[in-house]
Amino acid sequence: MSSDFNAILAQHAKTTQLLGVDFLPVGTPPNELLQSEQAPQIPDHPGVEPQLVTSSTIEAKPSQPDFALKAHAPVASSESIREAYESHSDPQSKLDALREKYITDAPHAQFITSFNNIVFGEGDPQAELMFVGEAPGQQEDETGRPFVGRAGQLLDKMIIAMGLSRESVYIANVLKTRPPNNATPTQDEAAACAPYLYEQIRIVNPKVIVTLGLPATHLLLGTTQPMRSLRGSFHTFPSTNTPIDLPQIDLMPTYHPAYLLRSYTEDNRRKVWSDLTAVMERLGLNKT
Ligand code: URA
Question: Do the Cβ atoms of 225 and 146 come closer than 8 Å?
Answer without folding.
Answer: no
